[in-house]
């Protein structure tokens, strides 16, 4: 992590606040993207989201590609491809199934990794609560197609790869 990040605003921000902010950003972005699907489709919404994020991040951090190794540039490229695949599969999922179900299914992968690494029995209670929530969402009478479910799970797998 660079000196700017450690000593800047993010370095002083509480980690819980950063997590809540990130979650809110992802959910708000997904909720807005659904309204774009009629005009640009899920792929167009992903393109707009990633292009906007790229411009904002470039303006904030002003990264330099000079002096970077080929391996570093390859890792950045792979990260970008995984991020695009995750967003595309998630947006294609919310184009087919309700947003709440897609978000819950996307979270199953990271939740499984967190639970697998946990050593506390109380964490099992949280897993059961999450499973109950997912089951409650699926009994709301909404049509949930297999392709939409699969795409949400693919997005969850891409989220796992992104966290490595």
Question: Main traits of this protein?
Answer:
164 residues, mainly alpha
The gist of it:
Helix content is 82%, strand content 0%. With 164 residues, it is an all-alpha fold.
Characterise the protein shown here.
The chain contains seven helices and no strands. The protein is mostly helical and 164 residues long. It has one domain. Helix 3 crosses helix 4. It is globular and about 50 Å long. The two termini are 16 Å apart. The mean pLDDT is 81.
Q: Gap between N and C termini, in Å?
A: 16 Å
Strand content: under 5%
**Helical percentage:** over 70%
Shape call: globular
Q: Could you say which structural class the secondary elements and strand pairing correspond to?
A: mainly alpha
Please outline the major beta sheet. none
State the assembly state of the protein chains. single chain
Mean pLDDT: 81
Using only C-alpha atoms, the radius of gyration works out to 18 Å
Question: Unreliable runs, pLDDT <50, ≥5 residues?
Answer: none
Number of domains: 1
Beta-strand segment tally: 0
Counting DSSP H or I runs of 4 or more residues, the number of helices is: 7
Written as H for each helix and E for each strand, in order along the chain, the element string is: HHHHHHH
